[in-house]
Structures are given as structure tokens and as C-alpha cells.
Write a structure and sequence with these properties.
Rossmann fold; 22% helix
């Protein structure tokens, strides 16, 4: 679905209450931003996104720039306050392919520059296809890279803090360029690490083989190294698979799971069954 197809006719205002950098100064800037949404009709569930609007100059022809961001909070909100949500935002830059000039991304920089007390124009929430199952005996296989971890933070808070007794297996495969980019798993913010004590939870971390050349995390290799466990889960009828991150991730995973399945044809059949049964959900950007 294109951004122009989202209904933005009923925007609302949110107030920044906290903005914290959660990556080291020596790597890309990613911020955990808390926003207070005191709007009577605003309700959301895990896996949904909000649109952030920034006024555009008249010369561009559109009234707003818009970008979607996954909500990183469970439906109970930050610190169990339903009016407070969080976003995980990477400060982005666009590079002109001809001149090589670097331009700041309008929406991401607007959010990253915002100070507590500032107002942010938002719309949504959007999406109902990317959410955890109600049955607490289901298994969750979550695969993400970069800020694609945001909805999984929401999932984990929901199953372990809101639901409290999750009996199914929960597995997180997560990739980043360096250890400093392991959002919610690094020294700056170890939010997800608090779930390591849960008997049903296990995380597998992947890093870039050449971070200085801006190569992406080799998450497919990490899954390949643990293919037996991932494949066993996929074949379990109680497993729901969630994938979040750059769109290329699905192509990489198709290659890995084709090997695990024996042939690409077998994997394609299994994948189609997962989709038909509502057990395969994706949330891609870029």
C-alpha cells in the first residue's frame, strides 16, 4: 500500500515527553521517542503503525510529508499508560546519486530534533495484519533488522507483561550493523534483554560482516546456523511467523528456508500454507 493511499483526513496532535538516543555516538543515530496522545478515539494494538506528518513547502505540491512508524509499545502504553506510546526512529539522510550531496530526511529529522513539550502531527493507527495471536500456547518466530525491531518490542511487552503467562515458544532473530546498533539489546537500552530470564524466550543476534562498508547484518547466516530450530518451529501448526525490516529481508529468508526445506519448491508450498492460514505476516519498508 502506497503512502498516498492512507487516510490522513483526521490528524491529531501528540506531545513529545521523552527523546533518548539508544545507539552509541559512533554509529547511526536511533532514538526512542515517547509521545503523549490525549485523543479520545486513539486506540491501538501491537503491530500497528502511526503516520507522522510534517508540513511541506508549497513547491512540492503536497500539503504534508508523511512517514509510517511502527508503535514500539504494547496496547497498555508505556509504563502501563495507554495515552503514552513510543516510536523507534533512525535519523535518515538521502544521498543525491549524481552530486553526492547528503540531504536530511524530512520526517525522521523532524522527529529526532523534537524536544520534550513539542507537538507532533500524527494520523492512524494503521494495519491489522501484523499482531500477536490471542492463544498463549502459540509459538512466535520473529525476524527483524534495524528499526524493524519496534513492533517486536511491543509484542514482547504484551506477551510477558500484559498477558504474563505465555506458554508458547518465543524466538527473536534480530540483525544490526554492529553491537552498538542492537536496538533495545545494547548497553544504551537493554529493554528486551529483561526477557532473557523468561523460560520460553530466546534471542539470536546477527551483525554485519563489514560494518565500515555499510553492509547489512547477515541475519540469514544466523538463521542458517540455527536452521533446525527455526524450521521445526515453522512446521509446527501453532507457530506464527513475523518479519519486519527492509524489503530485501524476505528474499534473503526465502533462500535460507529453501535450503532448510530441501528445495525452493517445497519451501514455496510451506510458505503459501503459512500465508493461507494467517501464520505468515510481514511489515516491510524501503
Amino acid at each position: 500500500m502506497k503512502l498516498t493511499e492512507y487516510d490522513i483526513s483526521n490528524p491529531f496532535t501528540a506531545t513529545v515527553t521523552q527523546s533518548e538516543r539508544i545507539t552509541d555516538e559512533n554509529t547511526d543515530e536511533v532514538r526512542h521517542i515517547n509521545l503523549r496522545v490525549e485523543h479520545p478515539s486513539f486506540n491501538f494494538i501491537e503491530g500497528q503503525s502511526v503516520g507522522v506528518l510534517v508540513d511541506a513547502p508549497p513547491v512540492f505540491g503536497n500539503e504534508h510529508y508523511m512517514r509510517l512508524y511502527s508503535i514500539a509499545s504494547s496496547r497498555m502504553g508505556e509504563e502501563q499508560d495507554a495515552a503514552e506510546i513510543s516510536l523507534c526512529v533512525r535519523r535518515c539522510f538521502l544521498v543525491d546519486e549524481i552530486s553526492g550531496e547528503r540531504y536530511p530526511g524530512v520526517v525522521s529529522n523532524h522527529l529526532c530534533n523534537a524536544q520534550p513539550g513539542e507537538k507532533i502531527k500524527m494520523t492512524g493507527p494503521y494495519g491489522r495484519h501484523f499482531m500477536p495471536p490471542r492463544d498463549n500456547t502459540c509459538n512466535l518466530l520473529m525476524i527483524g533488522v534495524g528499526t524493524g525491531i519496534a513492533p517486536f518490542r511491543a509484542f514482547l511487552k504484551h506477551v510477558y507483561e500484559d498477558r504474563k503467562e505465555w506458554k508458547g515458544k518465543v524466538r527473536l532473530f534480530y540483525g544490526a550493523k554492529t553491537g552498538m546498533d542492537l536496538l533495545y539489546l545494547n548497553d544504551k537500552n537493554g529493554d528486551i534483554a529483561t526477557y532473557y530470564d523468561e523460560a520460553t524466550f530466546k534471542a539470536f543476534e546477527a551483525l554485519s560482516p563489514r560494518p565500515h562498508f555499510d553492509e547489512p547484518a547477515d541475519i540469514s547466516a544466523t538463521i542458517f546456523d540455527n536452521a533446525a530450530e527455526a524450521w521445526d518451529l515453522i512446521q509446527d501448526l501453532k507457530t506464527h511467523v513475523y518479519i519486519s525490516g527492509l524489503s530485501k529481508l524476505e528474499e534473503d529468508l526465502d533462500k535460507v528456508f529453501s535450503v532448510a526445506a530441501g528445495t525452493p519448491e517445497v519451501w514455496e508450498t510451506v510458505k503459501e500454507e503459512l500465508i493461507e492460514q494467517g501464520r505468515w505476516s510481514t511489515l516491510f519498508y524501503g
